[in-house]
Design brief:
The complex is a heterodimer of chains A (about 500) and B (about 325). By secondary structure, chain A is of the alpha/beta class. Chain A is about 35% helix and about 25% strand. In chain A, the strands form 5 sheets. Chain A has a 6-stranded mixed sheet, sandwiched between helices. Chain A has a 6-stranded mixed sheet with strand order 18-19-20-15-21-22, with helices on both faces. Chain B is globular and about 55 Å long. The chains are: A alpha/beta (about 500), B mainly alpha (about 325).
Chain lengths: ~500, ~325
């Protein structure tokens, strides 16, 4: 009987289906790798198992008994420990306080500080060989380096002695020696009959440590096999989907030779020197795992993130992205798929939402509505945007149509270059198709587009070239016949985690 | 997502005042004691010290209570009106029952219960119903203030001499006010060693992480508000002994003072970091500043101005520290 079994787990976030009937089974003393491409649902499945997210449907059984977690504390009580990818540390508390948070050793109802310190020192000792600088149990977590923090998070989970351990990207910031130390811990736990769910984007780690591999795609489980009976190729193929491996995206645009934007050695938060050329009429895609700096480039170019180093030129003239207003005056336009944060003004009329960028760029003292209406009318027509009245609140529209309003707003300033930051997140298929058609049309007219998408298929179908990112750097460029899912996954996953080689 | 592109630098050797923000307050405290002694030569006499302590005591108590709420990254803007409410409830019950020993017990118990209930109401609204803490406690504060005026529209009520004489007197040769302060300190020392305290700081430091760790964050926040209500209640009862009557407006200025004292004591308004001892020190500093304003015959309104400036200064200090950290989080 499996220690943990999840069956038929379903979960929707708004219009997005994260899990569409996921199956997962974990045996006692088993190290089970759970892998899949961006947005395949593996993180959501882990959060459901950890009680941090409630599933819409499906069943979780522990030792054969159905459990219903109302929150993480229930999962903790059932012996489930989770290493969170985004870490669950309190920056302004000490290492010792963090590791034993909620489980502090007691003496007559009071926290036993000497024992807390000693237990922490003992836990840290197992990692001392792999650490360049020893960690002081009384040090504040805020003062630690990224790898030290990751080790503290790991010890926080390990010292709870969970029966079921979920490691979500637990090795991402660690170097080889540290990874080997983590693996030694995992093997010790396994020897004591504990079960481990191991999530990693580093294929070699998965094949090194896992007894069993389960692959998810589009919210369902597509493969579950003992590691010994499979190969890396078979696993990547399962992630991609058998039929899709041979599919090549079509080059639909005819980019000219003229350079629209040139970036050299761009450095900013999470960006470590990125160079690229964007041609006129071209769609250049940014791909790879989530959060490898793709979105940061777009925001740095639009003046939303400070640029530390590097040179940018637009149309041959140097460009300093200081503020969004400067970017807009140089005919850049930025669009985020995160509508709640960067998009619509929720209760304001559609018209106000459409003309916002125009108003900001032109900075006129007096606004003539008739002039603005003349300017946005052709855009409304092009986007096939339908609404009852310009004065209706924008929230009256569906998600896809709200997104069209935001697109219309950025088109209103007639940009030469569009920066699209995951623009189709959470919108329906028809709205996506409309956006793609609009992008094609705009490119044909000479506009250039930088597109970051968390949807790999979208990148492959829409972009002329794709730069694959890893840890703030471009690790591969896919163009022409090379633009296949297989190539994209290989570039993104096979190298996973740049610090591994640092 | 861990920051893999750029490993964070460890930062050591931060400024001493950054590590221990209350060091500056200790310095100011010593300085103020000097100024007070100069203005009022009897300042250091035990009897004068006790009388100063008894006038600072309500502010000190609410500051201790407010500390726990702020450590959890919440705030209680109703704490002063809880003091008023408790004060008039106790005074009215004692007065209406003729000042018998039973009436005193009943009055004190009812006052304490009212304070705890008020704290519970705040906590439930903020932690369970997820109302915004500033707006919520501002609103409940208006309700408590209204209730206080309804119970006792004007300052008054008679408290039997035995009660306020006992308060002004002492036990085992130590004045009652000192006992109350020692009680507050003892409470703080005990709570500091509880698991609850770790959970509270964790909740204030990063509520999402605390929740994922399996801590009962809602219960922790509610408990902090109940503690604040408890200390407000004790302050309200202390004021009955101090003034020998009830006053529905007695706590009006204490909310601002409590936050100011907490900030002066080095507790971050963003939560997680701080101590009740710092808040006691902060309350003393505020009291001494008020003394200076009084003895220098400056207008009373200056007290509010000084408190406002202190909070602004502390906030700007916090913002600058946050900027120093911004590139690493």
């Amino acid at each position: 009987m499996p220690v943990l079994a999840a069956s038929g787990v379903r979960k929707r976030f708004g219009e997005v289906v994260a899990l569409a009937g996921a199956e997962f089974s974990l045996g006692a003393g088993e190290v089970h790798a759970l892998i899949g491409a961006n947005g395949c649902g593996k993180s959501t499945l882990c959060k459901v198992i950890a009680g941090a997210t409630a599933a819409d449907a499906g069943e979780i059984r522990i030792d054969g008994e159905t459990v219903r977690f109302t929150g993480p504390q229930d999962a903790v009580a059932s012996g489930i420990g989770v290493f969170y990818q985004e870490l669950s540390l309190i920056a302004r508390m000490s290492v010792a306080e963090n590791i034993f948070l909620g489980r502090e050793p007691l003496r007559r109802d009071f926290v036993d500080r000497p024992r807390l310190h000693a237990a922490t020192a003992a836990a840290l000792a197992s990692f001392s060989a792999a650490l360049a600088d020893a960690i002081d149990p009384e040090a504040q977590v805020a003062d630690l380096t990224a790898d030290q923090r990751q080790i503290v998070e790991l010890l926080k989970v390990l010292t709870a002695e969970p029966r079921i351990l979920i490691l979500d990207e637990a090795t991402a910031a660690l170097d080889r020696d540290q990874v080997q130390t983590v693996f030694r811990c995992i093997r010790e736990l396994k020897a004591r009959g504990r079960s481990i769910i191991f999530i990693s984007h580093r294929m070699e780690e998965v094949f090194d440590i896992a007894d069993r591999i389960t692959v998810m795609r589009n919210g369902v489980t597509v493969l579950s096999t003992p590691t010994a009976e499979t190969t890396r190729e078979a696993v990547v193929t399962a992630m991609v989907g058998a039929a899709a491996t041979a599919r090549t995206a079509h080059a639909r645009h005819r980019p000219g030779e003229e350079v629209a934007l040139l970036a050299e050695g761009l450095a900013a938060s999470r960006l470590a020197g990125v160079s690229f050329v964007l041609h006129r009429g071209e769609i250049l895609g940014f791909g790879g795992l989530h959060g490898q700096g793709q979105s940061e480039i777009l925001r740095a170019l639009f003046g939303m993130l400070p640029m530390r180093a590097g040179r940018v030129s637009i149309g041959g003239r140097p460009y300093q992205p200081k503020r969004p207003l400067v970017a807009m005056r140089r005919s850049l336009s930025y669009l985020s798929g995160d509508r709640s944060r960067n998009g619509v003004l929720a209760i304001r009329p559609i018209f106000e939402n459409l003309v916002l960028s125009l108003l900001v760029r032109d900075r006129r003292l007096v606004v003539a509505r008739a002039r603005l209406e003349r300017l946005v009318a052709p855009i409304v027509a092009r986007l096939k945007l339908k609404f009852s009245s310009y004065d209706a609140p924008v929230t009256e529209l569906s998600g896809g149509n709200q997104q069209k309003v935001v697109i219309g707003r950025s088109l209103a300033i007639a940009p030469a270059i569009m920066l699209l930051d995951d623009p189709t997140k959470g919108i329906d298929m028809q709205a996506k198709e409309d956006l793609y058609a609009t992008m094609d049309e705009l490119c044909a007219q000479g506009m250039s587009i930088l597109l970051y998408s968390s949807d790999d298929m979208e990148l492959l179908n829409v972009a002329d070239r794709i730069l694959v990112f890893n840890a703030g750097q471009v690790v591969a460029e896919l163009a022409g016949e090379n633009r296949t899912e297989y190539a994209l996954y290989h570039a993104a996953y096979a190298t996973g985690g740049a610090l591994a080689d640092a | 997502m861990p920051d893999t592109a750029r490993p964070a630098r460890p930062r050591r050797g931060r400024l001493l005042t950054q590590r221990h923000p209350y060091l500056l307050t200790i310095l100011v405290f010593v300085l103020l004691c000097g100024i007070n002694t100069a203005l009022q030569p009897t300042f250091l006499l035990p009897s004068v010290a006790v009388s100063n302590l008894s006038s600072f005591l309500p502010m000190t108590l609410v500051a201790i209570g407010q500390t726990y709420v702020i450590l959890g990254a919440d705030i209680d803007l109703s704490i002063g009106t809880i003091v008023s409410l408790v004060n008039v409830i106790a005074a009215t019950i004692i007065d209406s029952m003729g000042g018998s020993p039973l009436s005193i017990v009943l009055g004190l118990t009812a006052g304490l219960a009212a304070g705890l209930l008020a704290g519970l109401l705040n906590g439930v609204c903020v932690a369970l119903l997820r109302f915004q803490p500033i707006v919520t406690t501002f609103a409940t504060g208006v309700v408590f203030a209204g209730l206080a005026l309804w119970v006792l529209p004007q300052a008054g009520g008679q408290v039997p001499p035995a009660f306020y004489e006992a308060y002004a007197g002492g036990v085992l040769g130590i004045p009652t006010v000192v006992w109350v302060l020692l009680g507050g300190i003892g409470f703080g020392l005990l709570v500091r060693r509880l698991r609850f305290y770790h959970a509270l700081r964790a909740t204030g430091g990063n509520i999402q992480a605390a929740y994922q760790t399996g801590l009962p964050v809602a219960r922790v926040r509610i408990t902090a508000y109940v503690i604040a209500g408890f200390f407000a209640a004790v302050a309200g009862l202390v004021l009955v002994g101090e003034t020998a009557s009830g006053d529905p407006l007695v706590g009006a200025s204490l909310t601002m003072s409590s936050i100011c004292a907490v900030v002066l004591g080095g507790t971050a308004l963003s939560g997680c970091v701080g101590s009740f001892a710092g808040s006691i020190l902060g309350a003393f500093v505020l009291g001494l500043i008020n003394n200076v304003i009084f003895f220098a015959q400056m207008p009373f309104e200056w007290q509010g101005l000084v408190q406002g400036l202190i909070i602004l200064a502390a906030l700007s200090g916090g913002v600058m520290m946050a900027r120093g950290r911004a590139d690493r989080t």
